[in-house]
Amino acid sequence: MDEEGGIARASKILLAVEIVSPGSRRMDHKTKHTEYADAGIRHFWILDLQRPVSLVACHLTEEFGYQDAPTATGTFTTTDPFPVTLNIDRLTIEGTRSEAEFDGAHPL
Fold first, then answer.
1. 44: nearest Cα among 74, 82, 14
2. How far apart are CA 97 and CA 38, in angstroms?
3. What global pTM score does this model have?
């Protein structure tokens, strides 16, 4: 949040992560890709939870908008915008424990 009314400017956002919805795949991959680039968000990740679970890391360039890294599955490792390693398959309930192990209650 900045001092100008408590609203964060898009250009100050370090990373936006979009979780793809089955009904809005085109919007998540195309429209938001363009909108976030136009807003100046430097890093944009597209996380698709459909099997195989995947992540596309997009980095904003001065000249060409977002440059997309190859689609990652399994493990995703990066140092930009910060160092992180994600086991992408474990980002869903199915990737961690069976639903039965949650006794019918989801942790979300």
1. 14
2. 39
3. 0.76
